[in-house]
Amino acid sequence: MPSGGGGVVSVLVPPPGTPGAETTLTAYFNHGVDTGGQSFGACVFDPDGAILTQSGVVGAPAPRPGVVTVTAKGFTESITPACDGTYATGSTSETIEPGSLVTFGFGDQKTAGSGDDFPTSFPGVPAPHFVTLASTDRLTAASPKVSRASDLGVDWTVSGTPLSLESVVVLWTQKSATLTCTFDASAGTGVVPADALLQLDKGSASFAVQSVHEADDGNPDEGGWGIRLLVQMPASTPTGLAVGSATLE
Prior knowledge:
Helix content is 2%, strand content 45%. The chain is mainly β. The chain has one domain.
């Protein structure tokens, strides 16, 4: 995150028919942390990507987002910060249709942190389309094993016509480290390079494949606040969702 302060608001929408699944809304805002990262093609490895916290850098100005409300056709969900400005995850049985315009609003900012207020609203974000991994993909296995010394191909189909800025993201998490690979959703295929996988250690790592539409707002490069607005949908597999643990060899 930039030094002026910022945060992330994320809406995670499960595919239709997922047993017991709910749409979840998460948010965190901090004083501004940029842990950096190393690029490998479409992937970015960040050794500290999994440890960004609500508190951020001590002494920097904190944003004041207040109550976060997300709306779409047939959907409204809000989460309210605690006295320390942190947010618990909100969940609802309501869902968001692919392509629906998702809007984000911020209000009642007096309860959250100190420093400059956020605006009361941001531009809308179109929800992405659901994607399904090919049955031959390694990440569709119940307990996948992945060689770090080989490129990892990922193939998918999209339910509908994706917008030009829709992405498919393959996220690996191992202890404090993250490896984030972002591909054009309309491409239908992507490759996680071996050079990127070798940044992770042998052993267990968590993975998730999602279709994503993201909007960024603010002026972080000028020391102001910055915010990422994400609408995410887990990819389907023949047996469930493309979320789980794998063994890296």
